[in-house]
């Protein structure tokens, strides 16, 4: 195991690609996968398209889970990247890896990941490195809803002539209704080109009844390590809170994702949504977004959302219904 001082140490690497040199700042506790994301940010070559070459390292750079502190990298040596920018976005869809089944981390392990200094440091660096571009201004007094795309709003694994057939039912009704109380940010573990294309096709970016505050992509994620599952990526809401502290915080933010592990840095703010798969079979029966509209509007009255246990959202809806009937 690397010592913590070594793993938190900043590394400045020079990467050569296509006749240019790029400076990449990472730390020892970052993985090769994370390094590829930083290179992607500079070159637009997607991580899965990158092949990294470095003297004497051979195939070690082919394993995305290897920590940089475990590799003998020297600032004096340059890395070479081979890869081409994705022109055909459709290729991205076909190639996108099947999402690994969600896994539950133990309570202790989750707390540990959230509180680890090295992860807090990664978050601070991400706040500094990843600039969120607002499509529409943040609104005073509104709460914040952060939404995943794949299997949350859209079934990206089924095929259809028209992408609208793969959209989760009631998506526009849901967004229109919750927009009254929430700013909406969409955060997907894919590339920004893909996020924009997909949301554009579904008509989410130009709907007259709601506005999207911002789109975030895979480059905004951080890699953390769990003892039981090894490295994995997550979506730290602290990135948004750090850039818009006057509007958003742990008290007024809720995030929907079908993968619980994406919440590991902020478990109190995540709601695990039932995945929307097999769109053709399920699009007539799926009511999740209708029920979640009720939940979001009911809890919007509260000053502090972080005291709720979103695992119990369905019973909150029922209790709320009873309360209303009796009053
Ligand atoms: Mg998903």
Sheet-strand content, in percent, reads 15-25%
Q: Based on the structure, what is the oligomeric state of the protein chains? A: single chain
Shape field: globular
Number of helices: 11
CATH architecture of the largest domain: 3-Layer(aba) Sandwich
Number of domains: 2
**Major β-sheet, in short?**
5 strands, parallel
GO molecular function, one term: protein serine/threonine phosphatase activity
Main location: nucleus
Cofactor: Mg(2+)
Domain FCP1 homology: 138-299
Keywords:
327 residues, alpha/beta, Ubiquitin-like (UB roll), Rossmann fold, 2 domains, five-stranded parallel sheet, four-stranded mixed sheet, 11 helices, 31% helix, binds magnesium ion, nucleus
Summarize the structure in words.
With 327 residues, the protein is α/β, with parallel strands linked by helices. The chain has two domains: 82 residues, Ubiquitin-like (UB roll); 220 residues, HAD superfamily/HAD-like (Rossmann fold, 3-Layer(aba) Sandwich), CATH 3.40.50. Helices cover 31% and strands 17% of the residues. It is built from eleven helices and eleven strands. Helix 6 runs parallel beside helix 10 and helix 10 packs across helix 11. The longest helix has 14 residues. About 3% of the residues have low confidence. Bound molecules: magnesium ion. The site of magnesium ion has 7 residues, from loops. Magnesium ion (MG) binds next to loops. It comes from Vitis vinifera. It catalyses: O-phospho-L-seryl-[protein] + H2O = L-seryl-[protein] + phosphate; O-phospho-L-threonyl-[protein] + H2O = L-threonyl-[protein] + phosphate. Its main location: nucleus.
